[in-house]
Sequence to fold (385 residues):
Amino acid sequence: MEDRKRAEDALRESEYRLRQIIETVPGLLWSLAPDGEPTYFNQRFLDYFGKPFEDFKHGGWLALIHPDDVPETERTFSHAIQTGSSYQGVLRFRRADGEYRWHEGRGEPLRDRQGNIVQWYGLSVDIDEAKKAEDRLRRSESYLAEAQLELAHANRVATMGQLTASITHEVNQPITAAVTYALAARRFLSAKPPNFREVDEALSLIVKEGNRAGEVVGRVRALIKKAPARKDAVEINDAILEVIALTRREAANNSVSVRTQLAEGLPRVQGDRVQLQQVLLNLIINAIEAMREIDEEERELLIGTRNEPEGVSVEVRDSGPGFASAALERAFEAFYTTKSDGLGLGLSICRSIIEAHNGRLWASPNVPRGAIFRFTMLPHSAAAP
Ligand code: ADP
Fold:
């Protein structure tokens, strides 16, 4: 008799402890019948929502979920109930004070010896603070990436401006000198009798000055090549999408429709992300500028990526006027431009950048018309050190 009473006391005591744990554990605990009907919620759960247990029965709990999260929750929940697999979901619940807060819910089935589910046990944790901090971080990261790209763009414009000024200055000097010698040569030619020795000397000075101007161009290219390229592992599709976002306004202002065909599962490429984005920026702006010449309805820009045996290929296709076959290679020459305000350096710089990455950049005609600019990049692991 004594023993039985002691056993009963011990049982009551352990039941009390267990209940205390269940009620004070910092989480919302629940259990459900095998068909998903609520059987028990801990006090914390009921207090959190400020509702009696009855309100949760017969699917009443769905009314507490943020409308945007209902379809997904219903789907994963009924999948778990039907298949007997663990439940996991992230969703917003409306707290007693009316605020929707992010929760992570998990549930596991308890089975009898035959493997039949007898009960579901689960836990829901308020992860609102963590989730919001994570969202803020993600937003600031994409903001930073955008800022970085704008900086690269501004940098490019500034560099171009500086280059123009110094190039104009450097190229002007030999050209002015050459013109002076040419005028002198004409004078020596029209002298009576003509002084051929002086003419010959003036001509060789003209050749010398011409070569000097050519060297300036060579120096500019060498300068660009010299900058050491970083060797990041670049997700090329991401880098492309960022440049597209940056050029969206430019495209819209020019009535250009932009489409993408980005291959999935591409390996990362080895290179300097910002430099690659500068190349893309150049190709896209060139394409938009070229298409100003054709009807608005026909201005199409297609940017695609592909996984190829020699690496990842990126192409920018436009429906602009394209170019005559002779102009195709000339387009890459430094100072070749057909624009009144063009500098003719964009493509030559692009090619230097891609070649510094051990890749290739070339152009071909598009069908039925327009231009295709394509470059290839080595995958990150296969790239030379
Ligand atoms: P810029 O843009 O200053 O002229 P680039 O080196 O970028 O310098 O381009 C050189 C030339 O190549 C352009 O002036 C143009 O004639 C030609 N070109 C470039 N991209 C295209 C394109 N998408 N379609 C037709 N022609 C192009």
